[in-house]
C-alpha cells in the first residue's frame, strides 16, 4: 500500500469523522500496488448515512479537510450507501482493495 502513515491516519480520521464511526474505508486502484508509481488516491466509503444531502455535505467537507491535512492530491472518493445501488466500481473496490 502506497500511503504514508500520516496519509493513512488522516484519511481514516477524516472520513470517519464525516461519515460516521461505523464507516468502512477501502483503498483501491494503483495505490494498493507497491510496485506502481504515482496515481491518485481511490477511496470507497461504505457509510451508514443514507440521506443524499447529508452524504454530499459529508463528501465535500471531507475532501476539503483531506486536502488541508495531506496536501492537494487527486482523490477519488466513491460513496456506497446502505440502501443505494451497488455499482461495478463498488465491486472492483471490494475485490481489489484493502480496508484502512
From TrEMBL:
Please provide an example of a Pfam family that matches this protein in its UniProt record: NTP_transf_2
Q: Which UniProt keywords apply?
A: Transferase
Q: Which residues form the Polymerase nucleotidyl transferase domain?
A: 11-82
Keyword Ribosomal protein appears in the UniProt entry: no
The organism sits in which domain of life? Bacteria
Show the GO MF annotations: nucleotidyltransferase activity
UniProt cross-references to InterPro entries, sorted A to Z: NT_sf, Polymerase_NTP_transf_dom
Q: Does the keyword Transferase apply?
A: yes
Query: Which SUPFAM superfamilies does the protein's record reference?
Result: Nucleotidyltransferase (SSF81301)
* Name of the protein this chain belongs to: Putative nucleotidyltransferase
Amino acid at each position: 500500500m502506497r500511503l504514508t502513515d500520516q496519509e493513512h491516519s488522516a484519511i481514516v480520521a477524516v472520513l470517519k469523522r464525516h461519515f460516521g464511526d461505523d464507516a468502512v474505508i477501502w483503498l483501491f486502484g494503483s495505490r494498493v500496488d507497491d510496485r506502481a508509481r504515482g496515481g491518485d488516491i481511490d477511496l470507497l466509503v461504505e457509510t451508514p448515512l443514507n440521506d443524499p444531502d447529508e452524504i454530499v455535505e459529508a463528501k465535500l467537507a471531507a475532501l476539503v479537510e483531506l486536502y488541508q491535512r495531506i496536501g492537494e492530491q487527486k482523490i477519488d472518493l466513491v460513496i456506497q450507501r446502505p440502501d443505494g445501488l451497488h455499482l461495478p466500481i463498488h465491486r472492483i473496490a471490494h475485490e481489489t482493495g484493502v480496508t484502512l
